Amino acid sequence: MNGYKKSVKYNINYQQQLAKRRYDKERANPVYHPGDLVFIKQHSKRPKFGELYSAPYKVIQQQHPHAYLVEDEESSIQEQVHVSRIQPVYQRMI
């Protein structure tokens, strides 16, 4: 019985490592600097053709490798946001 538990534990850990490798292979690792403008993905309900991302926010500081403190430029409200909800703002060159 003890041999089965070790085998099961090994197989679970091995499959978790494989899944992590597959996920990390295609994952971008974006880094934002203070002063960068970003869009924030909205979590709330929205109309079918409503905006997916809210107005530009300014990055204040990086609080964690995957979390940033951002500030709304209009209302000066600060919010901590996970990197998966952030999209960079690209300036048009006309």
**Would you tell me the overall average pLDDT?**
90
Calculate the terminal CA-CA distance, rounded to whole Å.
Answer: 70 Å
Largest sheet: 5 strands, antiparallel
Low-pLDDT segments: none
Q: How many DSSP-defined strands?
A: 5
CATH architectural category of the domain at 37-88: Roll
Give the DSSP E fraction (strand runs of 2 or more residues): 25-35%
Shape label:
elongated
Which structural category do the helix and sheet elements fall into?
alpha+beta
CATH class of the domain at 37-88: Mainly Beta
How much helicity do the residues have? 25-40%
| Annotation field: number of helices | 1
**Order of secondary-structure elements:** HEEEEE
Key terms for this structure?
27% helix, single chain, 33% strand, 94 residues, SH3 type barrels, alpha+beta
Detailed description of the structure:
The structure is a single chain. This protein is of the alpha+beta class and 94 residues long. It has a domain at 37-88: SH3 type barrels. The protein contains 1 helix and 5 strands, in the order H-E-E-E-E-E. A 5-stranded antiparallel beta sheet has the order 4-3-2-1-5, with no helix packed on it. The longest helix is centred in the first third of the chain and has 25 residues, at 2-26. The termini are far apart.
How would you summarize what this structure contains?
This protein has 94 residues and is of the alpha+beta class.
